[in-house]
Amino acid sequence: MTAPEPGQRPVAGRRPTGDATADCDPRHAAAAAGESVEVVDVDGTVQRVVTRAQMRSGRLRHRCTYIVVVDRQDRVVVHRRAAWKDVWPSRWDLAFGGVAGVGEAWETAATRELAEEAGVEAPLEVLIQDSYDDHEVSVLGRVYLARHDGPFTFPDGEVVASERIPGPDVLAWLKARSHCPDSVALVGDALAVHPW
Fold it and tell me: 92 FRET partner, CA 20 to 30 A, in 16, 42, 85, 157?
């Protein structure tokens, strides 16, 4: 068993995340691959509906929510993704969130994702909506800010560890680790001007 990174908080019932097999469950990946996903244009207009597997293999633009959670001490709650995730497995992420469901309103999707991934509900403030494209994904993302002190639980198994990083330090902290580039790109600008 590999020891967790310094300060890493393992999820109860799981081995520390340095072990790639600790959080790898092929049932999660198989179930996710069959989910229906809206393919959208740059303005968010739905073009068609495909499976998540088709969206990933074709790198098709889809709607995705990003929820940055900040506690009352202005620490950002970052988390490490499960090894079974279909994109960027086992990487650190700046925001909770994920793919919006077919016909699902933005805020409904964000509220659902926050509850599924962090085990909390909180008022959401829209920070920005923008697109992100790289060689792996194409998303139209909406970024939200949520203030919550926890405790945080990770009921759906998509998150395997979390940290609370002081706001002004969070981007440097993430960039020193294997991280999700979409959330850093989309959320980073909003946090860079945040009045910590």
Answer: 42
Q: pLDDT tens for residues 107-134?
A: 999 999 999 999 999 999 999 999 999 9
Residues 153 and 119: beta-carbon distance below 8 Å: yes
Distance of CA 22 to the CA centre of its chain: 19
Distances (CA, A) of 95 to 21, 64, 68, 79, 90: 23, 11, 5, 8, 14
CATH class of domain segment(s) 17-192 = alpha beta
Please tell me the distance from the alpha carbon of residue 31 to that of residue 13, in angstroms, as a whole number.
22
Q: Are 36 and 49 in contact (CB under 8 A)?
A: yes
Preceding peptide of 16 cis, ω within 30° = no
User: Is the backbone of residue 10 left (phi > 0), alpha (psi -120 to 50) or beta?
Assistant: beta
Grouping H, G, I as helix, E, B as strand and the rest as coil, residue 29 is helix
